[in-house]
């Protein structure tokens, strides 16, 4: 059974069209019976099973983290552990704006004679928790561990 592109609304529309066609042919059908027949036509045991499968494949990706979650990863190549203070999906994109507060400040400078510590940072990440922005050596600014 493939549900990759069907939403619950698509399936309900199929049930409505089936019900209308059956009624026009002289065999009235209740809405719940039409839903059950649509489920069977997709190889599911019943409507509840089919609607659960459709809900999981509704093309709404889960965010890479949640507000308040403790996360680990790398910021500018330095390991961190911290808390997600804010996370919001950027409109019309697959990216999220994120604000992190590290448990311990992270020194983002790699040479010995100078230091620059950061404890609260903001950036942009994709659905995998990786920022599209890169350092001069090609490393992502933020990488959240899976």
Task: List the SSEs and their pairings.
Elements: H1 8-24, H2 31-41, H3 47-56, E1 70-75, E2 78-89, E3 96-107, E4 117-125, E5 142-144
Antiparallel strand pairs: 1-2, 1-5, 2-3, 3-4
Helix pairs in contact: 1-2, 2-3
What brief labels describe this structure?
five-stranded antiparallel β-sheet, 146 residues, 3 helices
Explain what this protein looks like in three dimensions:
By secondary structure, the chain is an alpha+beta fold. The protein has two domains: 8-56, no CATH class; 70-144, no CATH class. The protein is 26% helix and 29% strand. The protein has three helices and five strands, in the order αααβββββ. Strands 4-3-2-1-5 form a five-stranded antiparallel beta sheet, with no helix packed on it. Strand 1 and strand 2 (78-89) form a beta hairpin. Helix 1 (8-24) crosses helix 2 (31-41) and helix 2 (31-41) crosses helix 3. It is rod-shaped. The model has no long low-confidence stretch (mean pLDDT 88).
Q: Would you kindly provide a brief summary of this structure?
A:
The protein is an alpha+beta fold and 146 residues long. It folds into 2 domains: 49 residues, no CATH class; 75 residues, no CATH class.
Mean pLDDT: 88
Q: Beta-strand level of the residues, as a percent range?
A: 25-35%
Helix content: 25-40%
Domain module tally: 2
Strand pairing plus helix content: what structural class?
Answer: alpha+beta
Write the H/E string, N to C.
HHHEEEEE
Distance between the termini: 29 Å
Largest sheet: 5 strands, antiparallel
Number of strands: 5
Instruction: Give the overall form.
Output: rod-shaped
Query: How many helical stretches?
Result: 3
């Amino acid at each position: 059974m493939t549900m990759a592109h069907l939403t619950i609304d698509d399936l309900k529309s199929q049930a409505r069209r089936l019900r209308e066609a059956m009624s026009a042919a002289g065999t009235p059908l209740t809405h719940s019976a039409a839903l059950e027949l649509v489920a069977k036509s997709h190889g599911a045991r019943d409507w509840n099973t089919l609607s659960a499968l459709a809900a999981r494949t509704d093309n709404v990706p889960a965010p890479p983290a949640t507000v308040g979650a403790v996360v680990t990863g790398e910021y500018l190549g330095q390991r961190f552990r911290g808390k997600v203070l804010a996370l919001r999906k950027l409109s019309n994109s697959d990216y999220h704006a994120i604000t992190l507060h590290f448990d311990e400040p992270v020194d983002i400078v790699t040479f010995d004679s100078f230091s620059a510590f950061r404890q609260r940072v903001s950036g942009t990440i994709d659905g995998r928790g990786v920022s599209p922005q890169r350092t001069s050596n090609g490393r992502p600014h933020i990488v959240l561990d899976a």
